[in-house]
Specification:
It is a single chain. This protein is of the alpha/beta class. The protein has a single domain, classed as Aldolase class I (TIM Barrel, Alpha-Beta Barrel), CATH 3.20.20. The protein is 40% helix and 11% strand. Strand 5, helix 4 and strand 6 form a beta-alpha-beta unit. Helix 7 crosses helix 9 and helix 11 crosses helix 12. The structure holds flavin mononucleotide. Flavin mononucleotide (FMN) binds next to helix 1, strand 6 and helix 11.
């Protein structure tokens, strides 16, 4: 099969499996180990708490992100449009999924074309793909959707448990450094659910990355997804990697660039914990694609509002009037 057709088919299968099978890791993201000290006297007005945040020089209404999932096949257009519209309305970050298909078939560009005024929009490409495409080609992906930043995903585990997966990862760091040097927008490097450790975080910072999404264990397991596609070794590695809380703490101690925490973040209280552990933004993927499935209701927007309510509640109960105070909130 033509490699692009294969990519399109795979992307559709991934979304379908995430929607209909249990693909969460069996181990937690580790956030349950962190407990805030509760202020029975908050002495704050819930309605006046500010969740305003700044990320890479841009203002957001709340420190939240829907991380990259899809694009590159016909149904993805509707999914990305709904997710992006909800993020624009709620003033949070949105990322499209891998834009690899767009490099080969320009007509697929429309499935990623979700630019809205004031939306912090991230493009997406695989770190591995940087070996095959020039910086100019990657720049065309950014320009093609008028992205604010580009996410580069690292997914060696997922590739390793895919029979057709890419397995020679030599030289990827150098390619990331070259990209950071020349791209017109900031580069954010992310995992996809197995976590980034302190060594890799330091290498990425040195290479010139503007931010890191630690995307750790505790949520969507790409090994589980691949297991449902074709067996192979996916189930063995279902829980492999670094729980999100541990990845975040390691990276926060190792680097100065801003961190996004994703991987099993399922509510606004976990976003609050992520910020307390050193993240600038809390992100999630699968809950939002599942919400998107409900026809007729603005389910994605409601879910973002639920996250915001839970984050604001956590801020009230920890006597945190703004995000800067939450970063220092008392723990048990
Ligand atoms: C259906 C689906 C497709 C995804 N595709 C991509 C992708 O193309 N690029 C990427 O960087 N991450 C991709 N991810 C990974 C997510 O961005 C995120 O890192 C990971 O799922 C962990 O977050 P979660 O536990 O909230 O789902 C995808 C996730 C889902 C659920």
């Amino acid at each position: 099969m033509d490699p692009v057709m294969q990519t399109e088919k795979r992307k559709g299968e991934h979304v379908d499996i995430v929607m209909h099978r249990d693909v969460e890791t069996r181990v937690t993201n580790g956030f349950e180990r962190v407990r805030f000290s509760h202020y029975a006297l908050p002495e704050l007005d819930y309605s006046k708490i500010s969740m305003k945040s700044t990320f890479l020089g841009r203002e957001l209404k709340a420190p939240l992100m829907i991380t990259g999932m899809t694009g590159g096949y016909p149904d993805a257009e509707k999914i990305n449009r709904e997710l992006a519209a909800a993020c624009a309305e709620e003033g949070i970050i949105f990322a499209v999924g891998s834009q690899r298909a767009m490099l080969e078939h320009r007509e697929l560009a429309r499935t990623y074309d979700v630019r809205q005024p004031n939306l912090f929009l991230c493009g997406n490409i695989g770190g591995y793909q940087l070996k095959n495409y020039s910086v100019k080609q990657v720049q065309s992906l950014v320009d093609g959707i008028k992205a604010t930043a580009l996410c580069v995903h690292l997914n060696p585990l997922q590739e390793a448990v895919q029979p057709e997966g890419d397995k020679d990862w030599t030289g990827v760091l150098q390619k990331i450094a070259e990209l950071c040097d020349s791209l017109s927008v900031p580069v954010i490097v992310k995992e996809v659910g197995a976590g980034i450790n302190a060594d890799v975080a330091k290498e990425l910072q040195k290479a010139g990355c503007s931010a890191i999404d630690v995307s750790g264990v505790g949520g969507t397991s790409w090994s589980a997804v691949e297991h449902y596609r074709h067996g192979f070794s996916g189930d063995v590695f279902r829980d492999f990697g670094i729980p999100t809380a541990d990845a975040l703490q390691q990276c926060a101690n190792a680097v100065k660039i801003p961190l996004i925490a994703s991987g099993g973040i399922r509510n606004g209280l976990e976003v609050a914990i992520a910020i307390r552990l050193g993240a600038t933004i809390g992100g999630a993927a699968s809950p939002f694609i599942k919400a998107q499935q409900t026809d007729g209701t603005p389910a994605v927007r409601l879910l973002i509002q639920k996250f915001k309510h839970e984050l604001r509640t956590a801020m009230l109960l920890t006597r945190s009037k703004d995000v800067a105070s939450l970063k220092k909130a008392k723990l048990l």
